[in-house]
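wait is this the right file?? whatever heres the structure
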């Protein structure tokens, strides 16, 4: 494992998804899933998210679309919050999900719109 890239990835992951979310995930690390979490931090968050060629906002927009199409609701919820942190507006999220509906299918869009509304309501409630 490249410790420097792992640490960079962990920093990016916390900045995007929130320190509380990441710390909660990491407290559940055990001998079985530790190698996976290390790989996730190093490669996903360090090697790819840590690149400068695309801004985090753009990466978040791409992730929202791809994760919605894959219908991974738990990850979609986390990355939706991350996208808002990275400056993606609610209007932009709506437009991304409209694109998902056409290219990824209506069922994926229906679930994604529902989750987005739930996330927005949670955020508004806390505000």
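ok assuming it is, sequence goes like this
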């Amino acid at each position: 494992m490249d410790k420097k890239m792992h640490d960079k990835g962990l920093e990016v992951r916390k900045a995007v998804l929130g320190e509380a979310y990441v710390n909660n995930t990491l407290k559940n690390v055990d001998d079985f899933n530790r190698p996976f979490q290390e790989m996730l931090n190093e490669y996903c968050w360090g090697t790819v998210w840590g690149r400068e060629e695309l801004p985090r906002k753009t990466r978040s927009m791409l992730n929202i679309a791809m994760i919605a199409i894959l219908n991974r609701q738990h990850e979609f919820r986390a990355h939706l919050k991350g996208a808002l942190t990275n400056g993606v507006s609610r209007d932009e999220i709506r437009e991304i999900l409209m694109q998902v509906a056409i290219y990824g299918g209506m069922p994926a869009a229906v679930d994604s719109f529902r989750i987005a509304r739930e996330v927005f309501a949670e955020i508004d409630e806390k505000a």
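The chain has two domains: 1-53, 54-126. so i think its the right one actually
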